[in-house]
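Intended use. Records like the one below are meant for learning the mapping from a protein sequence to its folded structure. Do not use them to infer anything beyond what is encoded.
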Amino acid sequence: MVFAYDQREIVLRADFDAIDERGVLSVPIQFENGPRPPERGEFVYLLDGSGNGCVGYVAKVRDDVARILPVFETWMGPSRPPAGARPRDHGGVHRTIDPASLSGQRDLGGTHRVPRLH
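Structure written out for the chain above:
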């Protein structure tokens, strides 16, 4: 099976040492002559210059910067995940969400709940 060029997996260069206090990574995106840029709600693959990488959830895209939540449970590469890597408390790609942990949160009608970024 061959996927159309604009439907292929998006891989972004990342500096995992630049994760902020909320566990979010700001990644510059510029797609002038390449595939389309990632969109909010998509999963991308983050890769650093040493061959380390993981899946990331695109939480916000503004101008030429994507705010991405790395999913460190998918970490691959020669190094360990960065010291600032925190496991997510409310589910993840490979973990079931515990409904009891969501008590008191507004029901979003079956949509995926993503932490609000400022």
